[in-house]
Amino acid sequence: MRPEELAQRIRAELPETILARGEVVAVVAREALVPTLERLRADPETAFDLLSQVTATDWPGREPRFWLSYDLYSTRHRHRLRVKVGLPEADPRAPSVAGIYPTADWHEREVYDLFGVVFDGHPDLRRILLPEGWEGHPLRKTEEIGGVRTRFHGTWVPPVDRRGG
Amino acid sequence: MSEREGVSAVRQETMIVNMGPQHPSTHGVLRLLLELDGETVLACRPVVGYLHTGIEKNTEYRTWQQGVTFVTRADYLSPFFNELAYTLAVERLLGIEAPPRAQVLRVLFCELNRIASHLVWLATSGMELGAVSVMLYGFREREVILDIFEMATGLRMNHAYLRIGGVVMDLPPGAEEKIRDFCAMLPGRIAEYERLLSRNPIWLERNVGVGVLSAEDAIALGVTGPTLRAAGVPKDVRRDEPYSGYETYEFEVVTREAADCYARYEIRLEEMRQSLRIVEQCLERLREPGPVMVEDPKVAWPARLEVGPDGIGNSPAYVRHIMEESMEALIHHFKMVTEGVHVPAGEVYQPVESPRGELGMYVVSDGEHRPYRVRIRDPSFVNLQAVPKMVEGGLVADVIAVIASVDPVMGGVDR
Amino acid sequence: MPVERIEGVHLGAASGAPEATEEEVRRGILLTTLDRAVSWARKQSMWPATFGLACCAIEMMSTGAGHYDLARWGMELFRASPRQADLMIVAGRVSQKMAPVLRRIYDQMPEPKWVISMGVCASAGGMFTNYAVVQGVDTIVPVDVYVPGCPPRPEMLMYGILKLQQKVRREGRIR
Predict the structure, then answer these.
(1) What is the chain B residue with the closest CA to A2?
(2) Which of A15, B68, C38, C117 shows the smallest number of beta carbons within 10 Å?
């Protein structure tokens, strides 16, 4: 379906749908995420069978603070959709979609690792990119780009804009 | 006691073997935890993150133009593709398009990069499976491509050639001839590889029927690229969601039905030929001259680069212009280089077809001169998730063949 | 036949005169100290351990491939096991997760061993001045030669290797 038709079709189900720059973006509530994705996958007109990515953006100062975005693609109809879910700062939890799209497994682990969003129902939620035992979630805007603690000399190398003298 | 009783009295345990992260054939720093029963793999768990570089966090602290140099080092074997996805995404946010000649140059270099990446795949796969001389042949051909890249962009890898609004420099004189010579040479070499490998009994034994991943499993696991096309699904972003003029080029999307490592090998060899076709079509279109960077002074990279006696740098005429002739030009140059482009607020997901699959760039802007969020959807990150499915139940030696056929690049996986 | 001139090597009876050298070599006799002979042998056939991490690893493989041949200096044999290697070329960005692995591999190499830090990421953290990359592997292992570049051309790596060979020859001591 062309983006305009797809936008109309999705808007019938999910009222908060916009069409911008050739992309259809729908906003859903956290509780409705899993049933919505299941429907979008099962419906032969939309047939979104490939989940390209799950990622998050941090908007500190806004409520909801964390915005997850699920990029869906249909190999049959060759159209795309983005589904966005907002998570409040006080409770950054979301349901895991790994049961519907097994590929979400690592994507959700990465979002947990870098943003601290917990996915309920995920089969194995552990850090994936950073070492185990790392403290903090670096991609949050409230975390700095980082000084570096060197492991074997016990020294701290400050970030480059603060290395003076 | 009888022999049978003796055998059943032997305790059987499974063994957990750690492969990597430092290992000659895990294609980079990939760690695999294998649970083995003898030689059979019962379970496989990939551990990634040994090359995590914080590229995405770094882009939030640099200007939009500088983002190109960071993003290009993610999937380091296909740097042009990273740059292409990023610049296309930012251009979509800006609402501009690169001039036609720039688009042709982008396609040209991307396809040459695809050939170079497949050559590295062939070289390393061959070496890992024991065909050590293929390593030398693959890198021999790749040197010719790297010479072309160096002529045009100044670097052999990680070029930062594609910029927002176009490309940074036109082709230097002599580059076209070199590319034509390469196009004439490569088909013979690919035929050589086929004679070496395609009907070689050892190659067939190690690849046919190994690492089968059906189409449903592949799509459920998000796998794209040659691994998905080996299962018969003709998904290619260049065909399905064309960008940069790909709808006007003639090429085939190569698929096979067998869904094993040998099918992926055949697909990549054939893709090299198809990329060559596209390169030749690009050379035809480059006959007409034209600008390679967009005209808008608020977006275009201000410098005019030229090949001088000491390499590629700002052209002396341009330096004279900003230093001696025009104060406004100097101020403009300074502002563009230090502050850069202001990109309107919004978000966009731009997929391109990299040699490994669908490479996507999810770019979010809040209207500033720095990116707000850049997320690289790397195909290798997703394809590696499928490795346990392909490997469980097989032999340990097949693990190497499967990883080689998936062709992961850890820079993209970990970013 | 060309004769490599190594300082400190005394040639039979008459030292200095080229004809005497040829004569000695033809007779198959060269006198030197054990130190110098061992250093020469060590530098001529160093076996690198495979430690390619990122983009620099590809340039290292290019250096080892046919066009810029490392076999000229006896180094084409990249040993997978660190226990059989004496040179570690740290090629690429070292992340925090990889740092203990790097140290472990270094510890597993037998003496004498050398380290070349290839590329700016290994030498000083490169362009990635952030939480994830170790800002220079010399915070973890002692480095003998730093080769800058992003990534360094094969010729630059070769120059670094030749400099290391000079260093080995110069500092030869049997330990």
Answers:
(1) B241
(2) A15
Q: What are the start-end ranges of the H helices in C51-170?
A: 55-64, 99-108, 120-124, 154-170
Contact residues, chain C, for B51 at CB < 8 Å = 53-54, 92-93, 95, 98
Is C125 in the A-facing interface, judged by CB distances under 8 Å? yes
Which residues from chain B sit within 8 angstroms of residue A124, using beta carbons? none
Cis peptide before C112 (omega within 30 of 0): yes
**B332 Cα distance to chain centroid:** 34
pLDDT category, C1, cuts 50, 70, 90?
very low
Rounded to whole angstroms, what are the CA distances from A25 to A8, A48, B362, C24?
A: 11, 14, 13, 84
Domain count, chain B: 2
- Residue C168's SS3 state is helix
Do B262 and B179 belong to one domain?
A: yes
Q: Which among A55, A54, A36 has a CA at the least distance from the CA of A46? A: A36
Q: How far apart are CA B259 and CA B233, in angstroms?
A: 10
Q: What is the DSSP string of B336-393?
A: HHHT---PPSEEEEEEEEETTEEEEEEEEE-SSSS-SEEEEE-HHHHHGGGHHHHHTT
Decide: B370 and B363 in contact? Cβ < 8 Å: no
| Most A CBs within 10 Å, among C98, C128, C130, to test the A interface | C130
Q: At residue B127, does pLDDT exceed 70? A: yes
pTM for the predicted model, two decimal places: 0.89
**Cβ–Cβ of A130/C97 closer than 8 Å?**
yes
What is the extent of the structural domain holding B306?
Answer: 300-340
> Smallest Cβ distance to A145: which of C96, C130, C135?
C130
Rounded-to-integer distance, Cα B129 and Cα B403, Å = 11
Is A131 an interface residue toward B (CB < 8 Å)?
Answer: yes
Looking at the fold, whether B205 and B87 belong to one and the same domain comes out as yes
Query: Averaged over B130-148, what is the pLDDT?
Result: 89
Q: How far apart are CA B103 and CA B165, in angstroms?
A: 10
Based on the fold, state whether residues B204 and B305 are members of the same structural domain.
Answer: no
Is C131 close to A146, i.e. CB distance below 8 A? yes
- Reported as a single tens digit per residue, the pLDDT across A89-148 is 888 899 999 989 999 999 999 999 999 999 999 988 888 888 887 878 888 888 777 665
Per-residue pLDDT reduced to its tens digit, A16-29? 888 888 889 999 99
Ramachandran angles phi, psi of C99, nearest 5°: -60, -45
Confidence (pLDDT) at A151 = 43
- pLDDT for A3 equals 82
**Closest in B53, B57, B157 to C95, CB measured:** B53
Task: Let me know whether B204 and B248 are in one domain.
Answer: yes
Contact C55 B23 (CB under 8 A): no
**B340, B368, B400 — which closes off a domain?**
B340
Residue B284 lies in a domain: yes
Chain A contact probe: residue of B358, B361, B362, B376 with most A CBs at under 10 A: B362
Contacts of A78 in chain B (CB under 8 A): 240-241
Listed residue (B359, B135, B134, B335) closest to B243, CA to CA: B359
Q: Are residues B292 and B323 in the same domain?
A: no
CA-closest candidate to residue C58, choices B37, B149, B313, B244? B149
Minimal C-alpha gap between B110 and chain A (Å): 22
The DSSP result for C30-58, as a single string, is: -B--HHHHHHHHHHHT--EE--B-SHHHH
Mutate to test the interface with B, among C47, C67, C89 (most CBs of B within 10 A): C67
CATH classification at residue B283: 1.10.645.10
